[in-house]
Amino acid sequence: MVKEKHLPWILLVPVFVLLLAVTIYPFVYGIYLSLSNYSIITGISFRGIGNYLDLFRDSRFLHSLKVTFIFVFSAVGAEFLVGLGIALLLNRQFWQKRIFVSLIYIPMIMAPIAVALMWRMLYNADYGPINYFLLLSRLTSRKIAWLSESQYALLSLIMVDVWQWSPFIFLVLYAGLQSVPPELVEAAQIDGASRWKIFRYLVLPFLSPFIVLAFLFRIMDAFKIFDSVAVLTKGGPGTSTEVVSWLSYLTGFTYFRLGYAAAMSIVLFALIMLLSQVLLKRIKQQ
Amino acid sequence: MHKIIRKTLFWIALAIVLIWSLFPYYWMFGTAFKEAEDYFAFPPVWLPSPPTMENFRVIFLKEVVNIVGIGGIAVDIIPPLLNSVVVAVGSTLIALIVGSFAGFALSRFKFRGRENIAFWIFSIRMLPPIAIIIPYFIIMKTYGLIDTQLGLIITYLVFNLPLSVWLLMRYFEEIPVELEDAALVDGCSRLQAFRMVLLPLTLPGIIATALFCIIFSWNEYLFALVLTRARSETLPILLSTFVAHKGVAWGPLSSSGLIATFPILICAIIFQKHLVRIMTMGVLKG
Fold first, then answer.
1. B243/B67 Cα distance (integer angstroms)
2. What rounded mean pLDDT belongs to chain A?
3. Mean pLDDT within A48-77
4. A252 vs B134, B260, B282: nearest CB
5. Which residues of A touch B139 (CB under 8 A)?
6. Do the Cβ atoms of A227 and B131 come within 8 Å?
7. ipTM at complex level
8. Which residues in chain B have Cβ-Cβ distances shorter than 8 Å to A262?
9. Which residue has the higher pLDDT, A8 or B229?
10. What is the CATH number of the domain that holds B146?
11. What is the pTM of this model?
12. Closest approach of chain A CAs to the CA of B130, in angstroms?
């Protein structure tokens, strides 16, 4: 008979063993790789922090950091606006609301690869419906090659992300809006407060922890962008959409510099950790 | 009068949101049933008439299709489909079994470090896949697990395991502990009470967790790209092979895309309540 005191630890053993094997070990190994030279022929040789020193002199890597930051903050910012808009729109009673909610959240659960490929059809310069509508409405006078013109390629990736992930912000903020006590809103209406004032001074304070959390989760995930780059632009044209994940993948599996690629991915991880710690601190303050 | 205008405006706004969220899917759906000349048409063809099953026949019967700019390709969707099912179900089952023990321990026992362990397990989700993909590639190569279903099943535990521990813990916490106490008084052991009282009561939560793990594994791309070759490739990999340097095989791509997303779409609509809850649970109770 096992002592009650020991039972939880025994139950936790399998999860510890598995997590040790599938996450901790590869992660520590990744850190070790990032401090090494690895080549398929000569194997692994320890190098120290050399890879990291090289990284911060590597203009291609610094450029990929910049592209990643632009992508993350524009995409998440736009997702916030769209998500908030939808949440405010649906924050009332209407016919068959449940069905509409489930139609709106569908993009989130689709395979990012399938999503990117759908958009690839929409973006097609010669036959795609986006150019068709733009020409029809005379917003442009020529067919735009969305994915191969450097001023549009990153924007195209951002659009795909906004399409897929605005519903997430919508769901979180929608839950937040439900937490606003309706009596308070009614009381404010009776007192003659304007809609904007009610939103600014009554709803927003209730919403702000939800907003910070939605941002936290979206920023964490947006930094990981890889799939849509892989099927839409492959980092191009030139290096205009080369995000860190893609550059790290190329460095590792096309140029076979695995140690250097590992160092890139560790830097990305450190950035995500740092940003999420800052945001988590803000949440705790609230 | 004023009220009617506001109502009309609301439904117009909702229609715009719906068109925005559904148009890309509608486009893929339509293309899957189009003849080749219809997806190379400008202005685009809005409804395939008459709808053709050709694009489905091709991918299931492994026929060679000639694509402008690509040449002849033969695609067989059945092996990737089976691989996707085996990998998703296998990884989810392991995650659920191990995760339910851990979730039970974390939700029902008070012991030192409990909160820290729960948070640590949860924070694994911050890890970007690119940070462990390079070590994974080397480790899997060492153990001969490249291009095997088992390799991917193990890999997907990286995300499924923390997720299922965390979600199951939350679901268990929602069931009043008194119900198990009653079983203990009747002479059950703690594990018997867990199996016969707690598990049946949390069945909807367990199913929702399973579904979430399955969706994640089904949609995953980066790990499958690096760790599989022709023998154990999954559906997302198959989808990306339709995009060649010079062109895209729109028709077969759309029919395969439909097969890869349709099951998930149906689940999403049927289990809307549970999935929406899970997707915001990570945020709202984190």
1. 11
2. 88
3. 93
4. B134
5. 25-26, 29
6. no
7. 0.89
8. 134-135
9. B229
10. 1.10.3720.10
11. 0.91
12. 6
